[in-house]
Amino acid sequence: MRNTPNTMHHINNSQIPAAFSMLIEEFERAIYKANREGAKAFEDKRYDDIPILTQRAKGIESFQSRIVSLEDEWSSRTTEPERKNKKGKWTKQAPATPVAFHAACVAKASEQLKAEFMKQTRSSFVSKDGQTAIVVSVSREHDIGTQKFCWFSFHPYQSEFLQSKPNGFLVLGCASPERTLVIPYRDFEPWTKKLNKSVREDESFYWHIRIVTDAGGFRLKLEGRGNQIDVAKYQSKAKQSKNKPHKALHPTATRVTPPAVASLLA
């Protein structure tokens, strides 16, 4: 007789993966705010404040990195090689895609947009020429039996960031880098008015992006029963060369501090 799946697997079927995602996003919001405060201090010539703000931002990012590591560890501990199918038979599961594959999605977007990007935060990037901003978010594929989908949270600060440059793109990794959507924000922004959203006690909020992936397509779920938009045309067709991998990230890009502030502190 087979042993039943372990307790860790049952816990993994709960909301813990989503909780990790939400916590990481909250740290992302704090880092973005710290970046803005640092840039404002530089503009106002409050140079004595800059080292303090920089240290604060680095501390926040350090905490976020630890949460990301815990998320990866949780994923590795809760991966089960076999699972019962709908007929009650045990079947081997395909290897799971890593929880975080942001870099691969950035590379896809970089190749498609013909731009080299500098990392601002874990999910936000700006092109070297300063003309293009991208926000990268990734998700596993969820299967509830009647529907398969990928879920992402999208925040007002991310919308603001995408609108801060002439060109903005929302990059969504749907379960794997090969299923990356690169959506111009000028197309996506009107849809936010029809997305479901969650409002916190402090009246801040975030939108829910649900990409339905069954039947081999990509459809954005909007408010209302059966209200969906086909977004398959935004799937990246870029293919990296195996011999010459594309350098999506500029090697001198600062991770936490705005470039102008970083140059001042150097």
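The above is record 1. Record 2 follows with the same two-line structure.
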Amino acid sequence: MNPLQQYEITILPGRNRDGRREGFDRIVIRPGHTLSIVGPTGSGKSAFINDIEVLAQDDTVTGRVIQVNGKEPSEELVRDPARKPIALITQNTRVIADLEVARFLALHVHARDTGTEEIISRTIALANEFTGEKITGTMRMTALSGGQTRSLLIADAILIGQTPILLLDEIENAGIHKERVIACLKEYHKAVIFVTHDPYLALITDRRIVMKNGAVAAVLEPGNRNGRSSVRSPGWMHSSGTSAKRSAAAK
């Protein structure tokens, strides 16, 4: 993957569980954007980010279409892990390879051709900023805790994978310093989408996508000078992280 390449993801509407079309025109995600996906259990949060991760083309149960830079992604972007601009990390992500941490990262460096051995120590150091449990290069991957694993994989995606878009599914349950993760992702100008039940995490992202009945029910983003949030419920026209027409305002 060319680290200088900029990627913009556009989400086109699908259907809710009753077969009705989602009420938005498109949702655009650009470098540096932060979004949180909120809603009750079973509302469709994980399906939303899974559609992004697989670059769905009306071939999933939701019927959504994901564009990359305004067009259908190439087969190479969809199928080649080294070219795919998206990484998905969940609270249940585990590594089954029984390798030392340094060896695991070295294999990824070799596969990506993204640096020298020095990047391995930088990646471990960055991971240690995300977790309170120190990681060393000689530790076995299978011996890492959940928080250590997620922290290492996020650091790996940032520095070695140079992944421009990260999807993080309920990482607040994985024992990591989420505020530092968000700050670091912004420093590296990554687009990041969180599935979360944490109200604080939802409030510190640029936009909140509210899910209900398997579909996008509303999009909330920072509003006027009074600090209120603008609410775009089914029927609003466009969400790109820039100013657009509002269909309603939270009172």
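The CA atoms of residues 112 and 190 lie 18 Å apart.
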